[in-house]
Amino acid sequence: MEYKDATIEEVDQAMRESQVAFLSYKNLSGKKKAEFLRAVADEIEALGSSLIEMAMSETNLPEARVAGERARTTGHCRMFADLVEEGSWVDARVDHAQPERTPAPRPDLRKMLVPIGPVVVFGAANFPLAYSTAGGDTASALAAGCPVIVKAHPAHAGTSTMVAEAIKKAITKTGMPQGVFQHLHGKNFAVGQALVMHTITKAVGFTGSLVGGKALFDLANKRPVPIPVFAEMSSINPVYLLPESLGATFEKTASMLAASITQSVGQFCTNPGLIIAIDNEALKKFIAKLSEEISKIPAGKMLHPGIADNFHRRLKESLQQKGVTIETQSTDEGSNLYGRPTIASVPAQEFIKNPLLAEEVFGPFSLIVKCRDLTELTSVASRMHGQLTSSLIGSEDEIQNHSSLLNVIVEKAGRLIVNGVPTGVEVVPSQNHGGPFPSTTDSRFTAVGTDAIKRFVRPVAFQNFPNALLPAELKEENPLKIWRMKNGTLQKA
Ligand code: NAP
Questions:
Q1: Of 198, 223, 245, 492, which one is least surrounded by beta carbons within 10 A?
Q2: What does pTM read for this prediction?
Q3: SS3 label, residue 416
């Protein structure tokens, strides 16, 4: 089915409606917003197998993966519902006046987080549900009290439309202002760019490529009134294999990495694209085992022809770089639309000299960087760009003995993993899905977990406000019974 691109007039109309909705939606109680978010989850589930079939047909993803993504999507809607119903996420603080203080009296000051305003959301091709129309950006912005305008991803426009209809049903059922959610199609960059540039837009949530995210970030910064763009972009998720442990764990480690590199044809932002190790006997055994596993994994159909073309182009480019050797490829080649699992290696000196080798190859590919010794391995780590994740494979003692390596990688990634793989992002309050540039445009925030709400709020202090005029969260009697910082102590009632 053809979906018509929104016109500039439709973009303007959507933004105006979202602003009207904002004026009432921002004042709704946490309980009302929670009802709405739970209704969104219920309506998505009510779409049943037709949603799964639509997503499978548009993305080539298997049923289990799409069903898992749907569960994750409804799960995060309900997680944010619980968060806003409980209420203490607004970080309310109350400092009473001290009229007798000398030399100057202290005024009554109260502060809390308030919604920033209409948020434009761009989802990524590889997550048609969990990072798309009702993805984490949409759910967290709606929870914060911000209307959302989604620019549908053209690679899953039908899935996006179905989810948008479910959200609209939830709006009607729970009596939300109609303009609180808008859905626009745009195969043409002009639609997304007009949304980012619109004066009513107050923030952008983006998941996708580095080129796309950086372009929209730069655009937003050229606005007469700049706005924050929370772009989750590219990451190659280095995995460091520590030498002493590898001799005993090479088989297990190779199997674990083979599965992670090829899961969903490698089309995960947390795909382990780089393996860094010391070139010794243990590494040779590890490569032999990894090669055995990878050669058996068939090529998989990629999300869409554009992603497949991009994978083949970037893979070819990487394999042509000086010092790069193919270690193994799947025996199954697949066609143009398929991603063929591939492992290559390069000496660390060549890797360090060649920035292209540190760029994402989005698909089932991983590059092994062979280091002479631990000093060279630490030097590779210190040159790494910002990442969503970094993993360390080794015993506790070995990691402790190489604390200088740990000290370096802490600076480079948003999530550090010991003896595990980066794929599989738990949606829980303690999650951090973010990291220094270029993995995101703002390493202070996460796109997954309850703290994702913090991207779409701003603090406001109320000075000497009469009690009746204060938001419920800050009133003297604490009617919502939420945790608040009152005169320096955390109190509930
Ligand atoms: P993409 O090509 O950047 O597209 C994302 C969205 O942004 C699409 O709607 C796209 O519209 C739009 N867009 C891109 N460039 C634009 C521009 N210059 N102006 C206006 N709109 C623009 O990304 P993708 O191929 O869908 O997703 C794959 C990438 O996402 C991979 O690199 C992966 O690592 C990354 N990813 C990151 C995370 C994370 O959390 N860090 C999670 C998942 C995926 P069009 O389609 O019309 O171009």
A1: 492
A2: 0.96
A3: strand
